[in-house]
Amino acid sequence: MMIKVEPYKATLDAIEERLTEMGKESNMHNVMKKAINEVAGVGKDLIYTGVKGRYTIKSSAFKKSDIVKKATSSKHPGATLTIKGESIGVKEGYQSRKNGKRKGASAAIIKGSTAKELKLTSGGRAYKAFLVTFKNRDDDGNIISEHMSIVQRVPGEYMKNKKKEKIKKMVSLSKAKAAEMVYEKQGLCTKLQEETTYRMLKHMNAVIGGTE
């Protein structure tokens, strides 16, 4: 996901006109640069706290550094915020519970929601998710690392020995998708536009007042 932070054209025109009236038109770029870079930082904070506030995503799965800010420059007057990443494993990234004797593994992705059992029905059979430990071994068979994931059998697809169906890791929202949902639901586009206008006016007045 990429978010652009840039001012309304009407805002740019109005501030440029005012600075020109005051003989300060040479300061236009700095006014815009400072405002946009500041707002990009605000946007990064809002997205991070928004995702952490809405989803049960673990700190190990989503860090503030995952939101990459590219500041404005003379060639690129608008800053950007970029969040990348594939779908995150349920066990690795979100609040989950392992399977029991009767129920499959469950997960709660949205904060405050009830954990939902992860299962599907195919051909009259219920496929319940379960916790497994994957072990990586060296050439001598020694375990060098291991990790746990919540997985589910794939109906109709079998392993090489044909005795058991294949398994797939259960995944949920990627960092990018979680950020996109927060950006849309919390109206961050409008908030960042309003903040950009406010900060441009602030720096314009500082230039006119001689404090910048």
Describe what you observe in this structure.
- The protein has 212 residues and is an alpha+beta fold.
- It contains five helices and 13 strands.
- The two termini are 35 Å apart.
Rg measurement, Å: 25 Å
Form type: elongated
Biggest pleated sheet: 3 strands, antiparallel
Widest sheet, order of strands: 1-3-2
Average pLDDT, rounded to a whole number, is 93
Tell me how many strands there are: 13
* End-to-end distance: 35 Å
Number of helices: 5
The residue fraction in helices comes out at: 25-40%
Q: Helix and strand layout, with pairings?
A:
Layout: E1 2-5, H1 9-21, H2 28-54, E2 67-70, E3 79-83, E4 87-89, H3 90-93, E5 95-97, E6 106-108, E7 116-117, E8 119-122, E9 125-128, E10 130-137, E11 143-158, E12 165-169, E13 171-174, H4 175-185, H5 188-209
Antiparallel strand pairs: 1-3, 2-3, 4-13, 5-6, 6-7, 8-9, 10-11, 11-12
Helix pairs in contact: 2-4, 2-5
Short characterization:
The chain is α+β, with helices and mostly antiparallel strands. It has helices at residues 9-21, 28-54, 90-93, 175-185, 188-209; strands at residues 2-5, 67-70, 79-83, 87-89, 95-97, 106-108, 116-117, 119-122, 125-128, 130-137, 143-158, 165-169, 171-174.
Notable traits:
elongated; alpha+beta; 36% helix; 5 helices; three-stranded antiparallel beta sheet; single chain; 212 residues
